[in-house]
Design goal:
Elements: E1 3-6, H1 9-26, H2 37-56, E2 62-63, E3 76-78, E4 81-89, E5 99-101, H3 105-111, E6 114-121, E7 129-137, E8 147-149, E9 156-160, H4 169-174
Parallel strand pairs: 4-6
Antiparallel strand pairs: 1-7, 2-3, 3-4, 5-9, 6-7, 8-9
Helix pairs in contact: 1-2
Length: about 190
């Protein structure tokens, strides 16, 4: 079940400022994907939407994106674990979405317990919409062999989760009561 948020103009402004800060920091660093301002913005929009979802579920989120070492810790700490947020534009969800690069996975495993998958639509709007697609335990990411994903000539070696393997948000929400995600380790 997909959920979604239409972000306020204020959330969009703050996401834009944080995206500009991270883009400036990494604009000359070769990364896992193409390093463009829009990629940083889309990521920040997903982080804000995920934060609002955790807040609305009473899962006491603490967003870490403004922390000095925010890129070295999880995106959001919650009552159900440490969350890494991954966000794509809608047109890339089917072919590139739900993916983590082989080189990025070890650092994600150190800082997060699960990945929250999002799609940002109309990210240039004053009130962008973000779809919350679901989540996956970090330990489930590399259960299948990595594969080359993306357009010919710009392919990246990724672990890509099948849409069918993404967990429903309701299961994550139930984790606070011990019925969903196992939170006994990693927190």
């Amino acid at each position: 079940m997909t959920s979604g948020y239409e972000l306020s103009p204020e959330a969009k402004t703050l996401a834009t400022l944080l995206a500009e800060k991270s883009f400036q920091k990494y604009q000359n660093v070769r990364g896992h994907y193409r390093n463009a301002f829009s990629s940083h913005l889309i990521g920040r929009l997903g982080e804000f939407a995920a934060y609002f979802w955790f807040r609305d579920q009473g899962l006491n989120p603490k967003i870490n994106i403004a922390e000095p070492n925010g890129d070295r810790i999880c995106d959001i700490d919650t009552d159900v674990g440490r969350c890494e947020v991954k966000t794509w534009r809608a047109e890339h969800w089917d072919d590139l979405g739900r993916a983590v690069t082989v080189s990025q996975l070890p650092s994600i495993k150190k800082k997060a317990d699960f990945i929250f998958w999002c799609v940002a639509d109309d990210y240039e709007s004053k009130t962008p919409k973000v779809q919350l697609k679901g989540w996956s335990d970090v330990d489930a990411i590399d259960k299948d062999e990595p594969l080359m994903t993306g357009k010919i000539g710009r392919q990246i070696f990724n672990y890509q989760i099948s849409v069918d393997d993404i967990q429903n948000l309701e299961l994550l929400k139930q984790g606070k009561n011990g019925q969903g995600r196992n939170t006994s380790e990693g927190n």
